[in-house]
Design goal:
The complex is a heterodimer of chains A (471) and B (351). With 471 residues, chain A is an alpha/beta fold. Chain A contains 15 helices and twelve strands. Chain A folds into two domains: 140 residues; 292 residues, Alpha-Beta Complex (Spore Coat Polysaccharide Biosynthesis Protein SpsA, Chain A). In chain A, β4 and β5 form a beta hairpin. With 351 residues, chain B is mainly alpha-helical. In chain B, α17 packs parallel to α19. Classes of the chains: A alpha/beta (471), B mainly alpha (351). Chains A and B meet through α1, α7 and α13 of A and α1, α5, α7, α9 and α11 of B.
């Protein structure tokens, strides 16, 4: 019995090691690919004059969709910040998704809203719309008041009202870069036939100096938990998503900011109400729809900082967020299981979805069990102490190396954190996150997978501190 | 097997530790060097800027070579950037003085050399700078660069040729477009066409059939923006069914932007097209053209089964002023609920 147990544990440990090597090789590959992609993008960008895009009649209009549920405290700043965007023609569609607070009243008072006789076409079915308001102060502001139906339903209602050919969803608690939409629209201008959706880099706003809804100075935040998330975002956006974009297999474009062609969004049936990861699900559905229609298309991710979002500062909120992300991912993989390992769906079917299944969805469980089994192996003295120490060292070093590579990539391309003093702090975070945070993260994701299997659908309440305090 | 795994892990630890250390050093070195270089650059830039501003303070302002003949090789690019930053802000005689300065200080010759670099971004940057310098001495080098395989180099060279003070310099640009079979950046072609004068337009239209679809799309879009009525007789035949593979919506939009009343009747005919997308673009174009003679036809679209066609018809009528208001008033009593709601909405908006 003991021999069997020993053999099983050794086999599992070897499997974990193999898995770990594979994962890190993928990360290195993505890093190299992202480096090439970002450098090429930045070099090309020098020749693209944003002023010409701003003045050109060739620049398509954008409808900015802002779902708002109980956002009474921050919605006014959000609309004011959006109204200052540097873009030739855009419309803001704020959807009051049955808020129980004073969201609608605040909007009415601040922007002189009046009820119009306009009716909303029900191209994508949504919960009943009570009224559509327009502003006498901001001609490009439309407010849709509807019954509560969740974020996806609110976004669908906003899409129905949108007048421009491109739509983008923006969270009410996020800050858009003033020229962000102008940068994101460039791929649509360059290749109007094929480009269907474009996303950009989302940064963490905590710690930054924010004035009048604009980030005026970028600072590395103070709380350790937020610092870890800054490094995580760099890793995810700079290495991960750019790598996938280069391979033409982007699965996740953050819902914080994503620009999509309205016609395709409507043809796909809008945002799904069946998942908590409606942003990523939409991208998966777009891929699926366009592949099934045999259309030539491009879904891109550009290495430009477009938007800033508020990161959770407490463990409870972070746990909730990561749990939701994990459930969202599992739901997408389940909803689009037909695409998995299916060459008909190109890179997405044979590479992106299998990668997300093996290393992201199942990876959480494997990592969690890996820690448990490793602990048992050490306790039963199946693995030698020198081996354990060496393995842990490799694991920490590889993790640090990958995070550091993301920082180097940031340094070589975006250079948002200009102060030399920020660098040692970042390096310290890269090392320290391996002790405690990584294990906790694996546990949250594992819980997320369990919650998915149990059919949990709730979003979980999130509290936002807001940006006003950071002035 | 177990021993092998053991050895692998130990070897990896050593390798990763040294690589990590190297990476940390690299990140730090890069940051410190970059910051130092930027500080130096800023300081020298301001130093030369003061000298340049002192020359502007003279009456009349004259640019002398003296202060910019630097002994430091590393200042060469800093001075170039400073002069380019200021040159772009001027037109006429002062601009010509800047061009002379670039020629006399050797910047034109230097950038012409750079056009032969093996890295595409160096070539593109050189073409961009030559355009900003505006020296006719660079014409031949830039025309040669039009044959470059890289899209950015072509774009910068084409744009530069339109910036040079020589009308004939840009002639080969439109010819070169027909030779670029795989070129697909709509935005580049659009920007270059936007620099076009009437003489260039004839050359462009003559070579148009040889362009690929992406380029033709860009040209059609730009023609609308140019607002040159010379383009109308060229665009109208493209509207005929089965005549062209180009997206009709682009042609319709361009006709609307052109502002030529000759497009009104052909656009009116499209209001009954089976495609809602085409009806929508046609009514939008007519609204832009302020086509009051077809207001009745537009009014009938307020009842269109497609919501957005009806919405655009309302917008078009609202843009027509008093006549549009009259038409919207007449629709208020329409039997169709959609038409009357739309009319009510746009009347309120006009008020």
């Amino acid at each position: 019995m003991q021999i069997f147990l020993t053999q099983s544990l050794r086999t599992f440990n070897s499997f974990i090691l193999l898995y770990f090597i594979m994962l890190n090789l993928f990360c290195v590959f993505f890093f190299v690919v992202a480096l090439i992609y970002v450098r090429r993008y930045k070099q090309r960008q020098r020749y693209h004059d944003l002023r010409a895009t701003l003045q050109s009649g060739n620049t398509p209009g954008i409808s900015i969709l802002v779902p708002a549920y109980n956002e009474g405290h921050g919605i006014i700043e959000c609309v004011q910040a959006l109204s200052r965007l540097c873009y030739p023609q855009f419309q803001m569609v704020v959807v009051n998704d049955g808020s129980t607070d004073a969201t609608l009243e605040n909007l009415k008072q601040s922007f002189g809203l009046h009820c119009t006789s306009r009716r909303c076409p029900n191209t994508i079915p949504t919960k009943p719309v009570r009224a559509i308001y327009e502003s006498s102060l901001l001609p490009n502001l439309v407010v849709v008041d509807k019954e509560n139906g969740g974020k996806a339903d609110a976004l669908n209602a906003a899409t129905n009202v949108a007048v421009y050919p491109l739509v983008c969803s923006v969270d009410a608690d996020s800050i858009l870069e003033e020229d962000g939409p102008l940068r994101v629209v460039v791929p649509f201008i360059e290749d109007p036939q094929r480009v269907v959706a474009v996303g950009g880099i989302v940064g963490i706003a905590n710690g930054n100096l924010v004035e009048k809804g604009r980030v005026v100075a970028i600072r590395f935040p103070r709380p350790f938990l937020v610092r870890v998330q800054v490094v995580e975002y760099l890793r995810a956006f700079l290495a991960g998503r750019l790598g996938w974009s280069f391979l033409k297999g982007v699965l996740i474009i953050s819902g914080v900011f994503c620009l999509v062609k309205k016609t395709f969004l409507q043809r796909c049936g809008g945002f799904s109400k069946e998942t908590v990861g409606e942003d990523a699900e939409l991208i998966a559905r777009l891929h699926r729809y366009l592949r099934e229609q045999d259309q030539r298309y491009r879904i891109l991710f550009i290495p430009d900082p477009i938007c800033w979002t508020e990161a959770p500062e407490s463990l409870t909120l972070l746990a909730r967020q990561r749990n939701r992300w994990q459930r969202g991912l599992c739901e997408i993989l389940w909803m689009h299981r037909r695409m998995l390992f299916n060459p008909r769906y190109g890179v997405l079917g044979v590479l992106t979805l299998p990668f997300h299944l093996i290393f992201e969805a199942l990876g959480a469980c494997l990592e969690f069990f890996g820690y448990v089994v490793f602990g048992i192996s050490v306790a039963l003295q199946i693995a030698g102490s020198d081996f354990v120490v060496a393995f842990l060292a490799v694991s920490v070093l590889a993790g640090t190396l990958i995070s550091l590579s993301a920082i180097l990539l940031e340094e070589l391309t975006l250079r948002r954190y200009t102060r030399v003093a920020d660098l040692p702090r970042m390096i310290w975070v890269c090392l320290a996150e391996n002790f405690g945070y990584r294990q906790l993260h694996a546990y949250w994701r594992f819980r997320g997978t369990i919650d998915f299997l149990r059919g949990k659908k709730a979003w979980g309440e999130m509290q936002h501190q807001g940006f006003v305090a950071q002035k | 097997m177990h021993e092998f795994v053991h050895e692998l892990v130990l070897q990896s630890t050593a390798f990763l530790s040294s690589f990590l250390l190297l990476l940390v050093v690299a990140v730090f070195a890069e940051k410190i060097l970059r910051n130092t270089f930027q500080r130096y650059r800023r300081r020298r830039y301001h130093f030369y800027e003061e000298k340049l501003l002192a020359q502007f303070a003279e009456e009349p302002p004259r640019l002398h070579l003296g202060p910019f003949k630097s002994k430091h090789r590393r200042d060469f690019r800093i001075i170039e950037q400073l002069l380019l930053d200021y040159a772009c802000q001027f037109r006429g005689s002062i601009r010509k003085e800047f061009t002379y300065l670039f020629e006399a200080l050797g910047y034109v010759a230097y950038e012409v050399q750079q056009l032969k670099a093996w890295r595409w971004w160096v070539r593109a940057q050189a073409a961009k700078r030559l355009g900003e310098m505006g020296s006719p001495q660079a014409t031949i080098a830039l025309q040669t660069a039009l044959a470059d395989r890289n899209e950015e180099v072509w774009f910068m060279a084409a744009k530069a040729l339109t910036q040079i003070d020589n009308k004939r310099a840009a002639q080969p640009v439109y010819q070169s477009l027909s030779q670029r079979l795989h070129f697909g950046n709509v935005s580049y072609v659009f920007e270059v066409v936007m620099q076009l004068d009437s003489e260039g337009l004839a050359s462009l239209l003559a070579t148009f059939p040889r362009y690929n679809t992406a380029m033709q799309t860009a040209v059609v879009r730009a023609l609308g923006e140019l607002k040159n009525p010379q383009a109308t007789p060229f665009l109208l035949p493209l509207l005929a069914d089965g005549q062209h593979h180009l997206a009709k919506v682009d042609i319709i939009t361009a006709l609307g932007r052109l502002g030529d009343p000759r497009a009104i009747q052909p656009l009116r005919d499209l209001l009954t097209n089976a495609s809602a997308e085409i009806r929508q673009s046609a009514v939008q174009a007519l609204g832009r053209l302020q086509a009051i003679e077809v207001a009745d036809a537009i009014r009938s679209l307020l009842d269109d089964p497609d919501y957005w066609v009806s919405f655009r018809a309302g917008e078009a009528l609202a843009a027509m002023g008093e006549l549009g208001r009259k038409n919207l008033h007449q629709t208020l009593t329409s039997r169709s609920a959609q038409a009357s709601t739309m009319a009510k909405y746009f009347l309120a908006k006009m008020a």
